[in-house]
Amino acid sequence: MARPNARLSSKTMAFVLAGGRGSRLRELTDMRAKPAVYFGGKSRIIDFALSNALNSGIRKMAIATQYKAHSLIRHCQRGWSFFRAERNEYLDILPASQRVSEDKWYVGTADAVTQNIDIIDSYDVEYILILAGDHIYKMDYEVMLEEHVETNADVTVGCLTVPREEASAFGVMDVDDSLRITSFLEKPADPPGMPGDPDKTLASMGIYVFKWSYLRELLLNDAEESESKHDFGGDIIPYIVRNGRAQAHRFTDSCVKHDPSAPAYWRDVGTVDAYWKANIDLTNFTPDLDLWDKNWPIWTYSESVPPAKFIHDEAKRRGTAVSSLVSGGCIISGTEVRNSLLFTMVHTNSYAQLDHSVLLPYVEVGRHARLTKAVVDRGVEIPEGLIVGEDPKEDAKWFRVTDTGVTLITQAMLDARAAAT
């Protein structure tokens, strides 16, 4: 049993919902779930939720997976295998496995927890923290847990403060002066303002704190409701708003920053444009997301690779990188790299140019290729002389070009182009 004066995180389990595809990322999620998509040069998206939990003091975690989970499971096995049961630490991976019936997978976010009640019971925890595994942010969950206990809430909902005109894309909270939630509205046309700040709205982050005994009973009752979608945002939270005490927690109160004056950083990198921008933003002189903070590190699986290497020093054939992130194992051979992010083991060849581009691991760039404002999927071989980002109409014939001009390139697209030409 935890000591009475122990941090609340020591009495808490983090349950990470990581089963979604993330279809708006298009071909980037053809072979992997959204939480397994690469981010920031060496991490996966799920590493942020898991690192937040670990840095907050939580040592009991579970990850519910469903859609194309192999790469996600493999990543967690390789990068998050340091938990030790003899220290009362656990990380369980819980794939949808027809535990209830042969034709029933996880049918909603709440159902993913319901189907694993026996496993959660075995953790012997007092609180459960429900997390989405597909957002980029730094947050001290202990602060939210303390607020949950202090307000005697049945559920505490992590909330972003967003401009009212942008809030229609979220599930939003109508709250009173004490931040008690009086109504939960799913993507309303006219979002409510906040007390004292009518131009801002509280939007749900998909982060919830419950006392486990309370949620357990609620889930069992919900499982018997034939009309329920068995979803936290659609069913569980609205029920508590009507029949219990639901409290809003402002992300700004628990956001971890490298500088007090820095903005509260949270990103849903759920579209190709948002994904590209969040990665490219890391090349800024002082990025809003600090990956160098040793006090709140982002843990991940790191391959054993040699340092990055830059070779050739001739006119128009100089291996250089300016305002860029270049990961281990990369070889920049006579290539000019600007404002770009290169993941592990990217190899580029002479006379190539990369500008505002994101290259996932093991990409090979051929000679004389020029890529501007591109996202290149893992293992792609860019052919010699390929030019992308200078003629959107031509690019759109073979690749996926977004409304803002970001070009997504996969090997299947290049193979189809080669077959047609």
Question: Would you give an account of this structure?
Answer:
The chain has 2 domains: about 10-285, Alpha-Beta Complex (Spore Coat Polysaccharide Biosynthesis Protein SpsA, Chain A); about 310-420, 3 Solenoid (UDP N-Acetylglucosamine Acyltransferase, domain 1), CATH 2.160.10.10. The protein contains 10 helices and 31 strands. The strands form 7 sheets. Strands 1, 4, 5, 6, 8, 9, 10, 11 and 12 form a 9-stranded mixed beta sheet that branches. A 6-stranded mixed beta sheet has the order 18-21-24-27-31-30. Strand 4 (about 60-65), helix 2 (about 70-80) and strand 5 form a beta-alpha-beta unit. The longest helix is centred in the middle third of the chain and has 12 residues, at about 210-225. The radius of gyration is 23 Å and the shape is globular. The chain starts with 11 loop residues before the first strand and ends with a helix. Homotetramer. Involved in the biosynthesis of ADP-glucose, a building block required for the elongation reactions to produce glycogen. Catalyzes the reaction between ATP and alpha-D-glucose 1-phosphate (G1P) to produce pyrophosphate and ADP-Glc. It comes from Tranquillimonas rosea. This is Glucose-1-phosphate adenylyltransferase.
